[in-house]
From TrEMBL:
<keyword id="KW-0518">Myosin</keyword>
<protein>
    <submittedName>
        <fullName>MYSS protein</fullName>
    </submittedName>
</protein>
<keyword id="KW-0505">Motor protein</keyword>
<keyword id="KW-0547">Nucleotide-binding</keyword>
<comment type="similarity">
    <text>Belongs to the TRAFAC class myosin-kinesin ATPase superfamily. Myosin family.</text>
</comment>
<keyword id="KW-0009">Actin-binding</keyword>
<dbReference type="GO" id="GO:0005524">
    <property type="term" value="F:ATP binding"/>
</dbReference>
<dbReference type="GO" id="GO:0051015">
    <property type="term" value="F:actin filament binding"/>
</dbReference>
<keyword id="KW-0175">Coiled coil</keyword>
<dbReference type="GO" id="GO:0016459">
    <property type="term" value="C:myosin complex"/>
</dbReference>
<keyword id="KW-0067">ATP-binding</keyword>
<dbReference type="InterPro" id="IPR008989">
    <property type="entry name" value="Myosin_S1_N"/>
</dbReference>
<dbReference type="Pfam" id="PF02736">
    <property type="entry name" value="Myosin_N"/>
</dbReference>
<feature type="domain" description="Myosin N-terminal SH3-like">
    <location>
        <begin position="33"/>
        <end position="82"/>
    </location>
</feature>
<dbReference type="GO" id="GO:0003774">
    <property type="term" value="F:cytoskeletal motor activity"/>
</dbReference>
<dbReference type="InterPro" id="IPR004009">
    <property type="entry name" value="SH3_Myosin"/>
</dbReference>
Length: 90
């Protein structure tokens, strides 16, 4: 993995290509529950983050706007270079 100083060659685009070291550490320490964190299909935004609040008799309640549900990757995978390391690919 490249350091923040190596990303300087990308100039203004660098923040969009990779999180800073500080942001990566914060993401790794952020609480994450793979069983309740999901993406929900959204008609305008494509996908929005959601949290499952309940599961009963085949029905799932998610705290956000409705739609199909897809599992979400932990924050530490945001802007990861090797997608093979990701748990979920959609």
């Amino acid at each position: 993995m490249s350091s923040d100083s190596e990303m300087a060659i990308f100039g203004e685009a660098a923040p969009y290509l990779r999180k800073s070291e500080k942001e990566r550490i914060e993401a790794q320490n952020k609480p994450f529950d793979a069983k309740t964190s999901v993406f929900v299909v959204h008609p305008k935004e494509s996908f929005v983050k959601g949290t499952i609040t309940s599961r009963e008799s085949g029905k799932v309640t998610v705290k956000t706007e409705g739609g199909e549900i897809y599992s979400m990757n932990p924050p530490k995978y945001d802007k990861i270079e090797d997608m093979a390391m990701m748990t979920h690919l959609h």
